[in-house]
Amino acid sequence: MSTQSEFTLNGQPRRLDAGICVARLLDELGYAGKRVAVEKDGEIVPKSRHAETLIEAGNRIEIVVAVGGG
Predict the structure, then answer these.
(1) Structure confidence at residue 68 (pLDDT)
(2) What is the CA radius of gyration of the chain?
(3) Which long-range contacts (CB under 8 A, 24 or more apart) does 42-51 make?
(4) Which of 4, 6, 17, 31 could bridge across to 26 with cysteines, CB 3.0–4.6 Å?
């Protein structure tokens, strides 16, 4: 039985397994390999830290997908 955490993702309440990292969240949401910016509680999470940054209950996560164009 897995424990779940409730956090806010782009302004919406969300529940996922406790202890999930940013990299896994991006993978589960289909953002793996895409250019995204991730913010956790108002602080940018560098891509180099996605695998080690855990999402915990109460966190506010914002994900912005970079869109190319010209």
Answers:
(1) 75
(2) 12
(3) 49/22, 50/21, 50/22, 50/23, 50/26, 51/21, 51/22, 51/23
(4) 31
pLDDT digits (tens, 9 = 90+) for 14-48: 998 888 999 999 999 999 889 999 999 999 999 99
Backbone conformation region of residue 32, classed left if phi is above 0, alpha if psi is from -120 to 50, else beta: beta
Looking at the DSSP assignment, which residues form a beta bridge with residue 55?
Answer: none
Instruction: Give the integer Cα–Cα distance in Å for 29 and 10.
Output: 12
Q: Answer whether 16's CB lies under 8 Å from 25's CB.
A: yes
pTM of structure: 0.87
